[in-house]
UniProtKB/TrEMBL annotation:
Sequence positions that bind substrate: 43, 67-71, 124, 189-190
Organism expressing this protein natively: Mesorhizobium zhangyense
Name under which the protein is recorded: Dihydroorotate dehydrogenase
Active-site residues, as the UniProt record annotates them: 127 (nucleophile)
Taxonomic superkingdom: Bacteria
GO BP term (any one): 'de novo' UMP biosynthetic process
Cofactors that this protein relies on: FMN
Top enzyme class: oxidoreductase
Function: Catalyzes the conversion of dihydroorotate to orotate.
């Protein structure tokens, strides 16, 4: 068997496969052993209770899914008292995904969840910043750096910044997160999108717009992964449209040190353990001893590099 271990922000994972936030819960214990995963990533929680967005919250489109869940949450107290204990029997590192409305609230929240049993914090900076007219923190380098810097002073835990594909400053935002103290980046959250029912003329989501995920998103987030991996020295975790072992390999070759699986789990709950098995088989077939042998090995010509730099 090949060595599938990878290191993300001070954490050594047994393999590079983990769930994307919002697509994973403790109910998956009925499908497979959660300890087969590299890490466990919770759905995003908020400090206070939150009801979420109006229905319908999910719809299927060609090659993708749209969702506008709205981060429903029972709050941090409920999570710490009722949800966190459920994961204490597992060896896989637990990553808590959090969301907040202001940079100061992010910092206070980070301090509250820095408790035994939590291995790292995923920072959902793709959420709206009420101090900047509702624009997502991850849209701008300044707002990104401010959040991560304040969180860094509030917790000793590794911080994984989850970036947005909706910004035109991908590299600058990634560098701002690194400079402010992020230990890893996740590329990326869903892309803002919309669908309309042609028969009724009504938006197919109750919140009108939502996040695009699934195979249609992959070329965008794969490009982001490549750009960010070249621009920062901290690990990058690829996320978006991953359902096959070829998808996993593409992200690793682009520079990701790990990947997150989201929408594919809704279609087949056993997707992640299957990808772990198949990745091991591919490495063995290619005569590669470790997953590190794939990371960042994308073959680009000088001409392709020039084009990529121009686009960046």
């Amino acid at each position: 068997m090949a060595d599938l271990r990878t290191t993300i922000g001070g954490l050594t994972l047994k393999n590079p496969i983990m769930p994307a936030s919002g697509t994973f819960s403790e109910e998956l214990t009925e499908v497979f052993d959660l300890d087969c995963l590299g890490a466990l990533v919770t759905k995003t929680i908020t400090r206070g209770k939150r009801s979420g967005n109006p229905v319908p919250r999910v719809c299927e489109v060609n090659g993708a899914m749209l969702n506008s869940i709205g981060i429903p949450s029972k709050g941090v107290s409920w999570f710490l008292q009722n949800t966190l204990p459920l994961y204490r029997d597992y060896e896989a590192p637990l990553v808590i995904s959090i969301s907040a409305n202001t940079a100061d609230e992010f910092a206070r929240f980070a301090e509250e969840v820095s408790v035994p049993g939590v291995a790292a914090i995923e920072v959902n900076i793709s959420c709206p910043n009420i101090e900047d007219d509702g624009k997502a923190f991850a849209m701008r380098p300044g707002a990104t750096g401010d959040v991560i810097r304040r969180m860094r002073s509030a917790t000793h835990l590794p911080l994984w910044a989850k970036l947005s594909p909706n910004t035109g400053e991908v590299v600058e935002v990634a560098q701002a997160a690194e400079e402010a103290g992020a230990d890893a980046l996740i590329t990326a959250n869903t892309m803002l999108a919309m669908a309309i029912d042609s028969r009724t003329g009504r938006a197919r989501l109750g919140n009108i717009m939502g996040g695009l995920s699934g195979p249609a998103l992959k070329p965008i987030t794969l490009r982001m992964t490549y750009q960010c991996a070249r621009a920062v020295s901290i690990p990058v975790i690829g996320c978006g449209g991953i359902s096959t072992v070829d998808d996993v390999i593409e992200y690793l070759v682009a520079g990701a040190r790990a990947i997150q699986v989201g929408t594919a789990t809704f279609i087949s709950p056993s997707t992640m353990p299957r990808l772990i098995r198949e990745l091991d088989e591919v490495l063995d077939a290619r005569g590669l001893r470790s997953v590190d042998a794939l990371i960042g090995t994308v073959d680009v010509t000088d001409e392709a590099v020039v084009v990529a730099e121009c686009v960046r």
